[in-house]
Structures are given as structure tokens and as C-alpha cells.
Amino acid sequence: MNFFKTSSICIILINLISCSENNTNNDEPVVTPNSEFQGEIEWSKTFGGSNEDSAVSVVETLDGGYAIAGFTQSLDGDIIDKTATDSDYWLLKLNQNGDVLWSKTYGGTNEDSAAKLIQATDGGFAIVGYSRSNDEDVSANAGLQDLWMIKTNMTGEISWEKSFGFGGIDQAFSIIQTADDGYFITGFIEAADIDDKSNKANKNITTLHGGSSYWGIKLDADGNQEWNHYFGGTGNDRGSDVIQTEDQGYIMIGSSESIDLDITNNNGSYDFWIVKINSEGTMVWQKSFGGSQIDTSYTIEATGDGKYIIVGDTRSNDGYITNAKGVADLWIIQVDTAGNLIWQKSIGGTEFDTGRGIHRMDNGNFILTGNTRSNDLDVSDNKGQADLWNIMINTNGDILWNQTTGGSANDIGFSCIQTSDKKIVVVGNSESNDFDIPNNKGSKDLLIVKYK
Q1: Which uninterrupted H or E stretch holds 298?
Q2: Is residue 235 within 8 Å of 259, Cβ to Cβ?
């Protein structure tokens, strides 16, 4: 369905957001006239300098503005506190209109790149990613690359920072604040590090994990490690997101290519891999979903009724994938509390399409963001190369609204939220300076778009 071809479409968009729960007709959704969301761009802004800059995560702050985390390699433009072109964490605070209130960079003299941002209950911010530094803001580095977490106050000043890792490449992709006001971080740990860690603990290793494994680290409120556990097989397994469950355990998601050890039902190449652990980090169950090609999950969200929606992309056209549409599709699955598949949907066109962010809206629907190179089937428009792509679905995975945003170059979405004023904010990066993108300040800019 093309939402933008007739003059009546604004009425449809206004009504689409609040679909009745008992609606089963995808073509004629039952709607209510109360929503004010129109699916139009309210404003679009880019920030950065002459080098590469990107957003990876956004939150609405307690004051109604926005905080954006990402990375920057620039020394000019909107970046005012860097002295070297290595990549640093970048935290940007905006008001509700997208005006910059303050900007901070964090890191050392080597490469440091953020992956996820949350606002803590004390009003400060927690950011995780990785660091290759061991100076300036980074107090320690155990090897080539460590998982690095910083905790700031409300104005972006560092309260404390922690590095976790061993001799190889270790990285965080997601963080949540837990019910006890601590933190849980997920990402991956290299196999060489697992051997190192285990040997240091004087354990007798009989079977080594492979290239990388899921890594879950539980911290207290001050960043002190309470426990950490790793999961995987002898292949490459990387955790990308985590959510705390109602029983105070955790579900980690990501991708796995392993066929052994903790993985019992690989479908071929990389699968969506879901790992449920209890509050002490012991595995409760694990599930793999996918086909014979590469299938990668990036983000998870609770539905509010004990179920979970997981979003990523698939290059498969077999196995659990029943309606492949292109080179790669945005793939969504819903599972129950035991990890059993409820439904799965492939969304996209004939080119490459992926989903990177999901957010549960206050009416029970979900907003997704990612990017698309298609201009057919589920994608109504493409402005050039990759466009930022937003989709609204209900709890059954039915598309309520979708829209591409971008210019003639590459534009990517990574994170999305519904705001307290019932609008949608999406962040990512852009190489464009035309169509929906107001300007370009360098190689790649941080991009934020607000929809009304």
C-alpha cells in the first residue's frame, strides 16, 4: 500500500496509529480518529564536522529534550573539544526543537566508539561501546580492544568509567539499567580472552569456545562487576541487545554461526540467536531462528504481555523465512516467554533492507528504523542509494505506516523513540545534502529527524 499517493492519505495516517486489537484485516485496519500523528517530517538536522560522525542511540531526557550518543572523528564544525582525528564517543544534548544545549566527547588517543546510550534513574547518562585507548578519559586497557563504559551526570561530566576485557577484541553493543539500579551490558568476548580469563581463574579448559561469544556483565550501581558469563560455540557469536525479564533474568539477542556447545539448533550460516539467563547469569534456554544464509538480529523490545519482538535482517529464503522479497529483508520475529516462535515477517523490496532500532509506543504499536535500498514492494520511494527507513507495525507485525527519508547519498537509521509529545525521533547518519537532508558538513554527519 502506498501511503503518499492521494490527498486523502493524511486522514489515513492520522487514523492508522491506533488500530483495534481485534483487527485481522491488513488491508482495511480498524482505526480511531484520535491520533495526531501524520507521518510528516517536522524537522531534520545534521551535526558534525569535516570527517566521519554518526549517531547510534537516542533517548528522550527527563526535561523533554534529547540526548544522542555516537562517535566523531572530526576536529571542527560542531565538535569543539577534540584535538586528534581518532574516533571518540560523542554525547550531544538537544532541546525539544533540536537545538544544541551542549556537546561532549570522551576517549583517549586511540579509537573509541560508542554503541548504546541510556539515561539513568539519577538523570545522568551511561554509554557503552569499545575503546582501544589507555589514556586521557580511559583509565585502563587490558588488550587490543576493551568494552568501555562511562557514567556521566546530567550535564555530561564523567562520574566514573570502567573498562572490561582481556588481551583480544572485546566490545559492548547494549546496556540497560536493571531493577536494582545496577547495569547489565551485553556484547562479545574473543575466544582467546575466554581462555585467558579461564586460565587466570585456574580452570581446566577441555573445550574452548570459538571466534567470539556472547558476553553478559552484571554491574552494581557504581559500576563494580558482580558477575559475568559468556555463551556460544566454536564459531562467531555476538550479542547485540538485552532486555530484563519479569522474573529478573535477562534475554540477550544477536547472531550466531556456531553449531555446537551452547547452540543446539543452528539453521545455517548466521542465525538470530536468543539466550535466556536467570538473575545469576545461568542459561535457562536458547533458541536459533533463521535460514541457510546470514540472519542477524540487532534489537529486542517487550510487547507488554510477556512476549518479545526481535528485529534485524535476513538474506535467507528458506528455513523459518517463508516470504523472502529481496537481497536482504528486514526480518521481524515474535517469541513468547519460553522463546517459542509466534510469528515472523519479512518486510522490504528487492534490494537490501534492514532494521536496527525498535521502540514500543504508548498505544501498543511499535516504531522501527533502519535503512533500505529498495523502491518496490513494501518500499514506496527511494531518494538515492540507502535511505533511512521507518516502519510502524502492530503487535501482529502488520504494517501501519512506512516512510523513507534521505537524499541522493547514503542515509542510515540506527535508533528511534516515541516522544512525550506523541511524535517520533530517529537518529543515524547521512552523507546527503539534498531532498530531506538540509546540509552536509563533511564525509558523514550525525542525523536526527523528528516526525509529527
Answers
A1: strand 295-302
A2: yes
Scored b (16 or more CB within 10 A) or e, 158-193 reads eeebbbbbbebbbbbbbbbbbeeebbbbbbbbbbbb
Query: 367-410, pLDDT tens digit by residue?
Result: 999 999 999 999 999 999 999 999 999 999 999 999 999 999 99
Contact 381, 357 (CB under 8 A): no
Q: pLDDT tens digits for 14-31?
A: 333 333 333 333 333 333
Tell me whether strands 295-302 and 66-72 are parallel, antiparallel or unpaired: unpaired
Contact indicator for 349, 391 with CB cutoff of 8 Å: no
User: What pTM does this model have?
Assistant: 0.90
C-alpha 360/C-alpha 228 separation (Å) is: 29
Q: Is the dihedral of CA 315, 317, 322, 324 positive or negative?
A: positive
Sequence-ordered list of residues with C-beta below 8 angstroms from that of 217, at least 6 positions apart, any chain: 147, 164, 184, 185, 186, 225, 227, 228
Measure the CA–CA gap between 296 and 238, rounded to whole angstroms.
10
Convert the pLDDT of each residue in 319-359 to its tens digit: 999 999 999 999 999 999 999 999 999 999 999 999 999 99
What domains can you pick out in the chain, each with its CATH number?
A: 43-451 (2.120.10.30)
φ, ψ dihedrals at 195, nearest 5°? -60, -45
Q: Which three three-digit cell numbers place residue 427? A: 537518529
The SS3 assignment for 68 reads: strand
293-307 residue pLDDT tens: 999 999 999 999 999
Does residue 307 contact residue 342 with C-beta atoms inside 8 Å? yes
Q: Which residues contact 208 (CB under 8 A, 6 or more apart)?
A: 191, 194, 195, 234
Q: What is residue 37's predicted lDDT score, i.e. its pLDDT?
A: 87
Backbone φ/ψ region at 385: left (φ over 0), alpha (ψ -120 to 50), beta = left
